[in-house]
Amino acid sequence: MTPNLSKPLQLFVILGSGLIGALAAKQLGLPIPFLLGSLIVTATLALTLAARTGQRLIYPKTMREFFVAVIGTMIGSTFTPEIFAMAPILGITFAAMIVFVALAQGVNFVIFRRLGGYDRATAQYAAMPGGLIEAIELGEKAGGDVETLSIQHFIRIVLVIVVVPLLFLIITGETHGSASGQTLESGPTDWQDWVLFLLIAPVGLMIGQRLRLPAAPLLGPLAIAAVLQATGTLDLQAPLLLLNVAQLIVGATLGSRFANSTPRRLIIALGLGAVSVGVTLGIASGLAFVLSHWVPVGFQTLLISFAPGGITEMSLIALSLGVSPVLVSSHHLFRILFTVAVAVLVSERRK
User: Fold this and answer.
1) Which residues are CB-neighbours of 321 under 8 A, at least 6 positions away?
2) Where in the chain are the domains?
3) CA-based nearest residue to 36, from 22, 57, 20
4) How many CA atoms lie within 13 A of 287 on its CB side?
5) Distance from chain centroid for Cα 255
6) 308 within 8 A of 288, measured Cβ to Cβ
7) Where are the alpha helices (DSSP H) in 80-190?
8) Maximum C-alpha span of the chain
9) What is the tally of helices (H) and strands (E) in the chain?
10) Per-residue model confidence as pLDDT tens digits over 12-59
């Protein structure tokens, strides 16, 4: 057992490996390279250190929350009054989301219960297509295996954010993400944009936490930026460099959390997660294809909106791939809230 690294050194190792992975992924032409590259290399490093030395890399929560708040501000900066005209469309797609949640929950329960051999409580809450923290808390109260739930939901999020950009690459034949700033910057950015983003992010984060909003670090800044942008008070332009840094931070955060698992448990969870995510994305693709013929929203936008990843990560993918982040984040928020609400009702009825 080697001595634990100091916190500053751990942060240096995590960010350094994340940057190396991001630059390598960009060189290879991978989609959203700063997210995927940092995730892959940091996860590999975290697993290796944990297996060989017992060293667990710990990422500072406050730094992740700040950059999640930056992402929220970026999403809000894309808000336009035209979103209100989409209310009838959202009514249709939200109804389809209810169908998606029901199908995903049912199919995933069978996968984890029959294929994975999980007990009923663990299978039920591992099957939830959203609400990582809530699923773990509710599953623990119901007698489920907390560690299994944590790993399984984390694997779900990671697999989705890896697979979806690759699907875009296969479908379109183009590498998205490396030029993502072209989709965010409607005009040139200057130092004032940097100041505004770095001011709105922490203020929105604090307000979101005070109001106890779901996904507070993301939604607090998002709401402030959206109001300022939609009313014409400000004209925010998201700097490309800031987006790339946010991708790197989120990817490195996710990768470092692999240290909390063991290779054996991770392989099992990956296998089950691959089946679950494959089936769930199949359902999402089917609904997206049908809806694309009923509403004036493209298949790719609908697919990202229905893909069962984390709201922060999927919103970041939407930003990076040039897909309407406001539309995507609203669907993911609805999915998570509906999934958690149903799970809470089921838990209450079993008491």
Assistant:
1) 31, 32, 165, 168, 176, 177, 180, 183, 300, 304
2) 74-250+262-349
3) 22
4) 26
5) 13
6) no
7) 87-110, 120-126, 132-141, 146-172, 181-184
8) 60
9) 15, 0
10) 888 999 999 999 988 987 777 888 888 889 988 888 887 777 777 777
